[in-house]
Automatic annotation (TrEMBL):
This is Phosphate propanoyltransferase. It is an enzyme of class 2 (transferase). InterPro entries: PTAC (IPR008300). Belongs to the PduL family. It comes from Brevibacillus fortis.
Length: 258
């Protein structure tokens, strides 16, 4: 017989609490532990001592994905890099990002909209084919730019803004978005999670402000590393930080059984 306490559940929290949470006959769950599980939408299921969950149920119960909270940032075309920082300028790596080959740059710019500006917005490298600014909805209210929720690269019909540095100015006619939440996966990750590029996942946070994301787009590429990306508004709403983990509880609009 085991006694399941809130403290023991909290100790499991970082590695992930299975849903359903399986208990054997005779196990005791304290009231505080029961409230802890209920508050996170985790079901309690009693199993026979010799009974094991099915392979699919076990796999679905423990699947997790690391999370990265992405602050406002800019991707620049090489032409715009040179307009803002000088002819022939190359972006200067400051630190690597979660995705291989991607890096935060030493360079920053000021973004200017109809109502205001935000200074020190980080440029991410390497340079891309088209300039794109990714802000949160809150940032949009501050500068007066009402950016739509889009996947990265989908910038047709989006608003523009002005980018300013000490050396130059770029007037964008389009390219400002609020990034739709998405998961990066390698082909091996996609095979493990049984999804393909363009599928969607249902993800659940494991924080003290639990939130379910019902339509997280899967992006698959050989150079991608497993990571779930949200912006600062989404991260703050669920009390999340980079390095936290979320649970996969369904895909393509269907919750996993159990």
């Amino acid at each position: 017989m085991a006694v399941i306490t809130e403290a023991s559940l909290r100790a499991m929290h970082k590695s992930g609490i299975p849903n359903p949470f399986l208990v054997e006959k005779g196990d005791k769950i304290t009231p505080a532990a029961a409230d802890f599980l209920k508050g996170r939408g985790i079901q309690v299921k009693q199993v026979d001592q010799n009974q094991q969950p099915s392979t699919n149920q076990a796999a679905e119960a423990v699947r997790e994905i690391p999370l990265g909270v992405s602050n406002r940032h800019i991707h620049l075309s090489q032409a715009d890099v040179e307009k803002l920082f000088g002819a022939g300028h190359q972006l200067t790596p400051m630190r690597d990002l979660s995705q291989p080959g991607q890096f935060a740059c030493q360079e920053t710019v000021t973004i200017v909209g109809p109502k205001g500006s935000i200074h020190g917005v980080r440029v991410l490298g390497p340079a891309r084919g088209a300039t794109q600014v990714e802000i949160s909805r809150t940032d949009g209210f501050a500068v007066g730019v009402h950016a739509p929720v889009r996947m990265s690269g989908d910038i047709e019909g989006t608003p523009g803004m002005v980018l300013v540095t000490a050396k130059g100015t770029v007037v964008m006619d389009k390219g400002v978005i609020v990034a739709k939440s998405h998961v990066h996966m390698s082909p091996a990750d996609a095979e493990q999670y049984q999804v393909k590029d363009g599928d969607s996942l249902i993800l659940a946070t494991q924080s003290d402000r639990p939130i379910i994301y019902p339509d997280v787009i899967v992006r698959v590429h050989p150079q991608f590393a497993l990571d779930f990306h949200v912006d600062t508004d989404e991260g703050n709403a669920a009390n999340l930080k980079t390095g936290d983990r979320v649970k996969v509880i369904g895909k393509n609009g269907q919750f996993y059984s159990g």
